[in-house]
Amino acid sequence: MSGSIPFYQKHHLHYDRGYRSKETEATLSQYQSSSSRYSASRSASATSRSASATSRSRGLKLSSHSGLDESRLSPVTKRAKPTYLALDKENQIIGYVVPIFRGSQEFATGLSDTEEKRVRDTAAYMARRDLFTSGLEMERSEQTSRRETMRESAERISLSKRIHEHGEHFKRMNEDSLMHAPNFVIKPRSHTVWENQCVRLHCTVSGWPDPRVVWYKNNVTIDPLAHPGKFKLQSSYNVHSLEINRCDFDDTAQYRVSAMNSKGELSAFASVVVKRFKGEIDESLPAPRRDVIEDGPVSEYGITFKTHIVDTFGVSFGREGETMSLGCTVIIYPHLHRYQPEVQWYRDHVLLTESKWSHMHWSGDRATLTLTHLNKEDEGLYTLRVTTKSGYETYSAYVFVRDSDAEVEGAPGAPLDVCCLDANKDYIIVSWKQPAVDGGESILGYFVDRCEVGTNHWCQCNDTPIKFARFPVTGLVEGRSYIFRVRAVNKSGMSHPSRVSEPVAAMDPADRARMRGTSAPWTGQIIVTEEEPAEGIVPGRPRELQVTEATKNYVVLSWKPPGEKGLEGVMYYVEKCVSGSDSWQRVNTEIPVRSPRFALFDLAEGKSYNFRVRCCNSAGVGEPSDPTEATTVGDKLDIPSAPSKVVPTRNTDTSVVVSWEASHDAKELVGYYIEASLVGSNVWEPCNNKPVNATRFICHGLMTEETYVLRVRAVNAAGLSQFSEESEPVKVKAAIGGGIPHASPTPPYGISVLECVRDAMVLAWKQPTFIGGADITGYFVDYREVIDGVPGKWHEANIKSVSERAYRVTDLKENKKYQFQVRAANMAGVGIPSLPSDTFLCEEWTIAVPGPPYDLEIREVRSDSLVLLWRAPVYQGRDPVNGFYIDIKEADAPEEAWRGVNTKATEKTFFKIKNLKEAETYVFRVRAQNKAGVGKTSEVTDPVHAVTKPGTTEIVVDVDDDGVISLNFECSDLNADSKFVWSKNYEEITDSTRMTMETKGNMSKAIFNTPGEEDIGIYSCFVTHTDGVSASYTLSEEELKKLLEISHDHKFPIIPLKSELAVELMEKGRVRFWLQAEKISANGKVDYVFNDNLLSQGEKYKMHFDKDTGVIEMIMECLNPEDEGTFTFQLQDGKAKNQSSLVLIGDVFKQLQKESEFQRKEWFRKQGPHFIEYLSYEVTPECCVVLKCKVGNMKKETVALWYKDGRELKADEHLSFAEGVLTLEIAQISKKDAGIYEVVLKDDRGKDTSTLNLTDQGFKDLMNLVFSVIANSSTPLKITSTDEGIRLYTFVNYYNDLLQVTWHYKDSAIAFSDRVKSGVVGEQLWLQITEPTEKDMGKYAIEFHDGKDGLKRTVDLSGKAFDDAFAEFQRLKAAAIAERNRARVAGGLPDVVTIQEGKALNLTCNISGDPVPEVTWLKNDREITSDEHIILKFESGKFASFTITAVNTSDSGKYSILVKNKYGTESGDFTVSVFIPEELGGKKK
Predict the structure, then answer these.
(1) Global pTM?
(2) Structure-model confidence comparison of residues 1025 and 523, the more confident one
(3) Where does 1051-1124 show beta strands of DSSP type E?
């Protein structure tokens, strides 16, 4: 059978006629030819055949497709695929293509039992059922394969299950939620066309049952047959259109399209304006609307109706819960019996229909609208429209609805306009508008309640209040209908609930659309198709996943199902993961969702998430979709900014008109709330309880002759904005006769051409000299062609007015000549046109230089200066404009008198012209330049008289007491319409982020919000509707810096301090906290604070404030542990404040407490003998250690005792006492002097002790000091030579054996050896280099160690120093050798020898020398030789002997020994004295 299955049954892509089987075509042809002959008599047999066919079909009940004419009135319920249209080759609808695997009886029809029975009784139904049955039998005969039979069985079981499910679903459906009145999805749009053009009006209408659509022209039904070729009506699947062919002037009318079904009727309107070219007569102003046709009687009745609405209702005020009736008497002339005009009621231009909230009644002469239960939704502009065949008449008045009294005082008003934005199976998004009244406390949020239709059980949907005015409600039962309401809550309590929403069913939008959608027209044919079942196929990826809404409370996802066809029962799992991680978590773990939308809750605010979706069915779970971009949880919609520039205007004795500037960059703006307050009361009352979408509103219900101020705030779903600045006070009083009547402006003048291309010209003109007392709202430009000097008819160049004084006129003809005229308009109307301009040729400009600047304006006229403004040329030339030149001349001077103002082109479009002559009249012009040169001159300005007008003021810079910097400008020539216009660099300031403008009376103030470098520039203020009152102020960088300093001083005034809070210790350990203010008045006061607790005068705290000197002090006797903390002195002198704190905690406090206690003890100590300076030591330059201490309060009886290691030191020359100082001198300190020294003072008044520890580290520190003194006393390192080598040496005042020194050679410590040695001789420290060589050249140093940095003495032993030392060494060495080897008498000879005569004399001496010296003996300087008497010997070269064998007196004399060798000579002398004994002498005598 697979070969005979049609193509469309396999792929489900096309259902064209060409894909049908031949049998089906034959059957359809037979049915078409015989359908008219079917009758009711065949209904019984048709029914039996239908039942038979049903038993043989694939489990499909044929009644599910019965009665297609009636099916156009029934919705297609959910899960049913939409029926497809079968088209022939000419794309004409000829029947339906119905997939046989879709639908069930209850689901497909959507009819009630009564309607079903009625349909089944019709002959047409019987004929179609026969045809359907025969078609199924033929289809069944083609299915012969076993595979198809098995699939049929499976489908039958599946279909039976689905039929049961749909049956249960249908029982739960609420028919009221499916049927609804017509609604214009797209309304017809108004058109303005030229004659002989075609226009098409089209609209899209929804509603079920299908609405009937009728078109009207001026409330007369349009009949295309009555005007062949003129009108063409078309309707195709809810899209309806009216085409008007070749429009003429009579087609200008109001067209209405009316849609009506069993649930109601709705109309929409559009206007068509057909324009024709006008002649010389000015017809630019639109003619007033004619409610009554005056061109003749109505063709239908032959008469013309005139309608009058009298006995009208006025502005009305009601309260929630009340009932209100609005009524008007309608007089229609002539009166026709039983004539029924069309009476319609509108609220805010929306047609009202009969409902439980509003009832409308027409008694024949009176129209009444009854609002049964007022809610704030009922507030608005109500309009009664009475339409007859001759036209219509309207009347409007506003109805205000105030909040009902709250159940709890201070509770907010009820929310309003509760509606459902998005509804599907799984959730419904409910939205509402915030109330205007918050009860005096900020609204904390809202609670959403739901109620199933048909019950009275309300269930709260959210546990905690939500602030965002949208909320997705979940936990709904699919297919059931619900209504919702919202309550607001603040700190005081809960509001009344809002008006309930319209019922809405919890079902997919696609299912709802199929149920409410319009079926195709019945063509008499049914085509049955078959879908390829998809058993065991896992669904693919969902498509186009996106985050449709994100707030801090929830996130809404939407996606499209996978692209594969035939996948039944697809459901979805939603997964999330924190951005940056790859940990996906399934959100709906228990129940998959059925609709392609889902709302997620319980997300962490501020975190970013990614989301993805998986499909699942009985075959399994598919692959995930592509994840979304990272979405941060939080409100994406910002609260709107506050409105600005609130301007009230008198209106009536009980109302004012208020206008304002819309909030900047506001998204999804709902509207505005206005509040009013009596001046001085500060009690604000709402003027409207329903947000208004415009920026202008009439506030009613005000008290006459009272003065009010008003303010406005904006609202969107995110919340309410801040209030605007308060308006200027306005007195409630009728404006009629209260001011100067307004008139139309005079004509503009000075029309010039700014640019010209082939088919267009840009014009500029000057503002009218008189604007009529009101601001000009726009300009209208007309043009006419001039042929051979003859002007043609005027044509409008712009239909909508232009606000600028320049306009591009298009659709001109090249090389044609034109004239132009301009008219100005204000609120009083359009003025007369200007004189025709010069004739201009329309040809493209090709010049390289720029065109003329335009719109020259004079500001800030003074006796010696003025400011000229202009706009850059429209025509730039070959290159962009890079500068401008300004020309000036006296008004009455000739053309040759033009002279330049600036020699260097200015890039700005404004220039201050100085050095004018007072009382002189000047004119100006401007030229632009680019790289090609200087272009055309602008139009010349009007003459300007250089005079400073009386009362002229300048902008004054002010810094108030709060530090706010503002520019202030005062004008005494204001009128009712005057406005202050502030500009920066002569461009109007519209952005309120940097500056805020305030105007009160004749004073305007421009306030800098956050002054900064971006605010540097030229600020100017211009007052409209005056004689050019203006001024400017240049804010330079230096001026801004100065103002910021002043602002800071004003904003934060401080009492200047000479000194901050400090603490000091006084005698007896008292603690003094003090500071000194630079200047403080007699009214100044001080608060003494400790740890945020205020201190007061008492026993513990003694406070004193000297206002003359500004010294503030607080004295405490002592510090206790509980006094640890922060002490603060808070000063206030009027507005000026200051404070100074001192933190005393931790180590700081402990140290101060310790010092205080010490001082306290010191005070008591000093009452007797005491140490002024405790025992210490010093080292004298002579390196003597002196222990000393200074004492005081001594008397004669006071005893001072010295101790060392507990042993008293006796008084000696080392102890002294002079001038209150006790000293102990240690001359040459050594280790034995280490110990603990103590001095004790005592007398009858007390005792004091001072101890000095000179052991261990103390002694080491002392010795380091001694070493430092020794080091500092050292002489510079010197060089000397010896016979052994070179010696480096230094002297110190005193050498101590404990002194450590290090000798360095080339920055390295010297390793001593036999050749290099060091030593100490007395106070000399030396380094000996024996037998030096050139390798010993370099830098030498001796380093003294004192425990710290030490001291180095250096010498450079190189170069000449080394050469000299080495030469000296060689010399000394040679001399030493000579000295060592020269002949010498080593000893042994006495100086005097006294010997007795006759005795023998033997003397021996040592002789040394190398070589052995020669020995010579002398007597009395004469050489003697050895003989028997005198024996001279020289033995072994060392010993010389002198022997006299027997001395006699002649031997007495001076003897010498002379030794000599080549190195030298030396002598030794002795004297021999020979005496004769007395006894021997006497004998001789």
Answers:
(1) 0.38
(2) 1025
(3) 1057-1065, 1071-1077, 1085-1090, 1093-1094, 1101-1106, 1111-1116
